[in-house]
Amino acid sequence: MEGIRLIEVKEDILSDNNKMAGEIRERLRIAKTLLLNLMSSPGSGKTSFILRTIDGLKGSLRLGVIEADIDSVVDAEKVAALGIPAVQLRTGGFCHLDAAMVTQGIEALPISDLDVVIIENVGNLVCPAEFDTGAHRNVMILSVPEGDDKPLKYPLMFSVCDLLVVNKIDFLSLSDFNIALLRERVLALNPRIKILEVSCKTGAGIPDWIDWLKAEAAGFNP
Amino acid sequence: MHELPITESILRIVLKHAEANSVRKVKTIYLKIGRLSDLQDEWIQRYFDYLSKKTVAEGARIVIERTPVVMQCNGCSASYEWEVSKMDEVVCPACGGKSSTLLSGREYTIKEMEAQ
User: Fold this and answer.
1) Domains along the sequence of chain B with CATH
2) Which of A18, A75, A180, A197 gives 20 to 30 Å between its CA and that of B6?
């Protein structure tokens, strides 16, 4: 009987994904295209936010969108109707996007003609935080009706994001959502994160987001 | 929630090392997973049992070591472990500072495996 041996593996389980994500980042850096990964819960207003972004940019940046909502073409159709190149990934019930799926999306877009590509990730605050999509910046939307306790429940998501957009601030007067407490909780997890307050319904705060996006894109294509 | 793709990755890496080491049977696989990950241990084993059928890793037991969340204070640079359940109120135990940076707690590593 052969004895039992101990074999050292020491390999990162996500190494294939991380390597592919690094390749995406480099490829888009060379193409001078900023890739943003937009994450949130279902119903937080991701698609409305993208539509507001298209409107707010007024053509000043060339935008493309990769949609990853589970088995739906509705979101991509809404975006494409505004003349923005959009590709719908069918994630087939997957809970997150990985770098291989994003690569497919990028190959379907005219990257060299775009300044910014926004990935609309699957609506979920758990899994997308764990998988590097190859984006240069991670942006999260939290809407007021979801509550100010979300950093407590999904700490990883808040830790990996560069920007937190608090949406539906028009609901603030109707709820006990404490925005100062939210800021404190989020900054304790991630002191580098920037926080913006917007309402996709009224348009409040959208100019601040557009300014942030333009500044980030300018850093990519000086 | 994403135990399936993670488990596929684990199996792929395990089989690669099994082949390189001329393994006939993989007995135990030791993983190190950070506490910030939401993976459910029992689902990893269940998916692994399913995916590894008819491979040298069929029947292998998966042992998961959870590595702690380690923070570093942005004020005094002290590093310290912190509970995931208290992530909304991170306070440096050395200086009381409320601003810290995550050092580790997101690991996803296959450490080693026992095989014949």
Assistant:
1) 3-115 (3.30.2320.80)
2) A75
Are B47 and B3 a contacting pair, CB within 8 Å?
yes
What pLDDT shows up at residue B87?
79
The pTM of the full predicted model, rounded to 2 decimals, is 0.86
Best A132, A148, A156, A183 residue to mutate vs chain B (most B CBs within 10 Å) = A156
Radius of gyration of chain B (CA): 18
Task: Please report the pLDDT score of residue A69 as a whole number.
Answer: 66
CA distance A12 to chain B (A): 4
Res A186 pLDDT > 60:
yes
A180 to chain B, any CB pair closer than 8 A? The answer is no
Residue B114: closest CA among chain A residues belongs to which residue? A6
Tokens of B56: 């040298």
Is A97 within 8 Å of A70 (Cβ atoms)? no
Q: Residue B114: pLDDT above 90?
A: yes
ipTM beyond cut 0.90: no
**β-bridge pairing A86-88 and A34-40:** unpaired
pLDDT score for A127: 82
Q: Which CATH architecture has domain A16-144+205-217?
A: 3-Layer(aba) Sandwich (3.40)
